[in-house]
Design brief:
The structure is a single chain. By secondary structure, the protein is an alpha/beta fold. It has three domains: 379 residues, Thiamin diphosphate (ThDP)-binding fold, Pyr/PP domains (Rossmann fold); 211 residues, Thiamin diphosphate (ThDP)-binding fold, Pyr/PP domains (Rossmann fold), CATH 3.40.50.970; 176 residues, Rossmann fold (3-Layer(aba) Sandwich), CATH 3.40.50. Helix content is 37%, strand content 13%. α19 crosses α20. The longest helix is centred in the middle third of the chain and has 27 residues. The chain is elongated and about 95 Å long. It starts with a helix and ends in a 6-residue tail after the last helix. Keywords: Lyase, Thiamine pyrophosphate.
């Protein structure tokens, strides 16, 4: 294998010759010097506390006590960055760089510092010796910056703390950005993740007329933390065939000699940029392009390139040992003096005295290699998308109101009604081209039918007779059956200054739990960075919810995304469970116009009774929680019981239970409280939407029994209300029960149905004495009758199917 790898690194003469024609030896030497400067700054960030320019011999006090960070990926990424700088200047190219390999954050910081952006954003990190000292100290240091590419890194839109989403983010960034190229350095370890492996198919959704382009650069350095990579052990031919099969045209740049590699990279980048421009030019001139193979680059270099070759008798460069810290000098490790000497030799091998002047500033002839102004990768406005964000033109959601003569008198499908509003969002923003829907092949299933009256699905691959709603300029991104891709595309779209939402089955939104969590963390950090501009919120619609999965069964039932999001920072997350269409319209309009949040809406798509007029819905959603006076009978008096509900199905069953209680026990004073904004339940001291204790007690009382029917897992309600005064709380919710059955039986199996709610209410009212015994018995009888009926007939009891609210 070693001999095979050496063979792969042999230069191809034609590239060198052509590269030298593009760049003379002087230019190549300047490129190499700039690369050495970036490598020096990146290595210095790993190790140095002081003596940043090595003006004197290195001492142990100059070096950090604990070295935390990564080196293996860094030189290769620096190599890419310096060559992209040249491309930006040569073609006046609008370009951002997304770093996929994770924890090599010191490379991005180093390059942002070299072109001056970092010092503009953080003036304390000045472009002189003292600024360099601070730059080095802060890296992976208490009170400093993280070791990975992060929100604090100018020019970044991709969190380096988790692998797999770089290409998805890149495509999201270039949709509707016709002049932008998103270059992506893809780590060969990262390429083994499921999301990244799927991302190669994203090119089927790129429209060369109206979109920009993505330039993937697969960085093959052969190893992960301690294992070889799959791509790293594939032959040249296997890799070439793989990417050809994914509709990419791969160009290979392979080797380990710096000057040879600079020439090869320069030639290859010129070729692929001109090829991208040619594809776009022809498409925009009206040429029928057919099946496009977009160019990409496979860059093979040694891991830890230019770093230490051997430490303690073990090879480092070109092995997995270069992945993190190539020379350990942590207190207590052996060979401290020898290691210190090796660190100094390594750092001096970059010849910082040739690269920085007496003040510690990059010399002018190297500064000239970097782009200027907004063309700098670290200063590109697309990487700080709030700078480019423009408000959506939104229709008046009240125009889509359901006319409601009385509560429950009309049945509608909430998502169909929302579809009309979204259709007109598309129409109003057709010229701006700054709004899209994202979701995995579920737009029709989630009943957003009306959206297709305004646009189609995005599809830039083969179309055959019988296909529906496919178009190269479609704005509904649901032709990819991958939650990862749809979420990643949306995040990239939002982070570069546009608007959209993700609609998914509730159970399968769990596939992107971690992605949403990372985005929430990104927003949390950005909220603390004054230079980061606000972006449109990440809006997630969870339809086909747990209570609508009687036909799909247990596998499609999971409301746990609410629990996952509720644990994130309160200044970022919002959770809404509208009980009907008018409330959904009000909530969605609020969410799509908001900034810097993760908004989750849990919605119904099946026919449901409608409860509130639009005027009532606006008031209710604005407050987030409230008493439904028309369903209550405790006005002016203390209630005997509070019947609370949150979610479309829990609301239906609660109202049905209330109707049974009021008929059987008319003397009972019942208060019905509906919750739309779930975070209202949390104390105001913990969440900005939370109710004060006084307001909570006014709604729920201090001691009366609360029978709470909740959409999700009951424990979430207990967690949110843990510090409240009223502990007399009984929550009904999903209990991990369900199979192929009837809709009502799903509720019965999880004890969220009206009969169980009535029983629980009676059992929590000891003042009834024996007066409630007969009602409990009736409810038990009904449950038996229900079970026998569905097993015999195959559908729910007529009294369930035909039930209507009666005041």
């Amino acid at each position: 294998m070693e001999e095979e790898n050496k063979a792969r690194y042999q230069p191809r003469t034609e590239f060198i010759e052509k590269g030298q024609m593009i760049m003379n030896s002087t230019d190549l030497k300047k490129i190499d010097a700039y690369w050495r400067a970036a490598n020096y700054l990146a290595a210095g960030q790993l190790y140095l506390l002081d003596n940043p320019l090595l003006r004197r011999p290195l001492t142990r006090d100059d070096v950090k006590k604990k070295i935390v960070g990564h080196w293996g990926t860094v030189p290769g990424q620096n190599f890419v960055y310096v060559h992209l700088n040249r491309i930006i200047k040569k073609y006046d190219q609008d370009l951002i760089l997304i770093s996929g390999p994770g924890h090599g954050g010191n490379f991005f910081v180093a390059n942002a510092y070299l072109d001056g952006t970092y010092s503009e954003v953080y003036p304390n990190i000045s472009r002189d010796e003292e600024g360099m000292r601070r730059l080095f100290k802060q890296f992976s240091f208490p009170g400093g910056i993280s070791s990975h590419v992060a929100p604090e890194t100018p020019g970044s839109i991709n969190e380096g703390g988790e692998l797999g989403y770089s290409i998805a983010h890149a495509f999201g960034a270039v949709f509707d950005n016709p002049d932008l190229i998103a270059a992506v350095t893809v780590g060969d370890g990262e390429a083994e993740t499921g999301p990244l492996a799927t991302s190669w198919q994203s090119n089927k959704f790129l429209n060369p007329k109206g979109d920009g382009a993505v330039l993937p650069i697969l960085h093959l350095n052969g190893y992960k933390i301690s294992n070889p990579t799959v791509f790293g052990r594939m032959t040249h031919e296997e890799i070439e065939h793989f990417f050809l099969g994914c509709s990419w045209k791969p160009y290979f740049v392979e080797g380990d000699d710096p000057m040879t590699m600079h020439a090869k990279m320069a030639e290859t980048l010129d070729t692929v940029i001109e090829e991208i421009h040619d594809i776009q030019r022809r498409a925009r001139a009206g040429e029928e392009m057919g099946h496009i193979q977009w160019p990409m680059i496979v860059l093979r270099t040694p891991k830890g390139w230019t770093g230490p070759k051997v430490v303690d008798g073990k090879p480092i460069e070109g092995t997995f040992r270069a992945h993190q810290v190539p020379i350990d000098i942590t207190v207590g490790t052996p060979n401290q003096e020898e290691h210190l000497k090796q660190i100094e030799e390594w750092l001096r091998s970059y010849h910082p005295e040739e690269l920085f002047d007496e003040n510690g500033t990059l010399i002018p002839e190297l500064q000239e290699l970097a782009p200027t102004g907004d063309r700098r990768i670290a200063a590109n406005p697309h990487a700080n998308g709030g700078k480019l964000l423009r408000d959506l033109r939104t229709p008046d959601f009240k125009d889509y109101a359901i006319d409601l003569p009385a509560p429950g008198s009309v049945e509608k499908q909430d998502m169909i009604e929302l579809g009309g509003y979204i259709r007109d969002l598309f129409r109003l923003n057709a010229d701006a081209k700054n709004f899209r829907i994202f979701g995995p092949d579920e737009t029709m299933s989630n009943r957003l039918y009306k959206c297709f009256e305004a646009t189609n699905r995005d599809w830039n691959s083969t179309v055959v007779p019988g296909d529906e709603f496919l178009a190269s300029d479609g704005r509904i991104m649901d032709s990819m059956l991958s939650e990862h891709m749809c979420e990643g595309w949306l995040e990239g779209y939002l982070l570069t200054g546009r608007h959209g939402f993700f609609a998914s089955y509730e159970s399968f939104i769990r596939v992107v739990d971690s992605m949403v969590a990372q985005h929430a963390k990104w927003l949390k950090v950005c909220n603390q960075l004054p230079w980061r501009q606000s972006i449109a919120s990440l809006n997630l619609i969870l339809s086909s919810n747990v209570w609508q999965q009687d036909h799909n069964g247990f596998t499609h039932q999971d409301p746990g995304f609410l629990d996952h999001i509720a644990n994130k920072k309160a200044d970022v997350v919002r959770l809404y469970l509208p009980p009907d269409a008018n409330c959904l319209l009000s909530c969605f309009d609020h969410c799509i116009r908001s900034r810097d949040y993760v908004n989750v809406l849990v919605t119904s798509k099946h026919p449901r009774p409608q409860w509130l007029t639009m005027e009532q819905a606006v008031k209710h959603c604005t407050q987030g929680v409230g008493i439904w006076e028309w369903a209550s009978n405790d006005a002016g008096q203390e209630p005997d019981v509070v019947m609370a509900c949150c979610g479309d199905t829990p609301t239906l069953e609660t109202l049905a239970a209330v109707s049974i209680l009021r008929k059987a026990l008319p003397e009972l004073k019942i208060r019905v409280v509906n919750v739309v904004d779930l975070m209202k339940l949390e104390p105001a001291t913990k969440h900005p939407h939370g109710l004060t204790d006084a307001d909570y007690d006014a709604l729920f009382t201090k001691d009366k029994p609360i029978i709470f029917a909740f959409h999700g897992y009951p424990t979430l309600i207990h967690e949110l209300t843990y510090n409240r005064t009223n502990r007399n709380l009984s929550v009904h919710g999903y209990q991990e029960e369900g199979t192929i059955t009837t809709p009502f039986d799903m509720r019965v199996q999880n004890e969220i149905d009206r009969f169980h709610l009535v029983k629980d209410a009676v059992l929590h009212l000891p003042q009834l004495g024996n007066r409630g015994a007969y009602l409990v018995q009736q409810m038990n009888d009904k449950l038996v009758e229900h079970k026998n009926y569905i097993h015999e007939v195959g559908q729910d009891l007529p009294e369930i199917l035909d039930w209507k609210w009666e005041s």
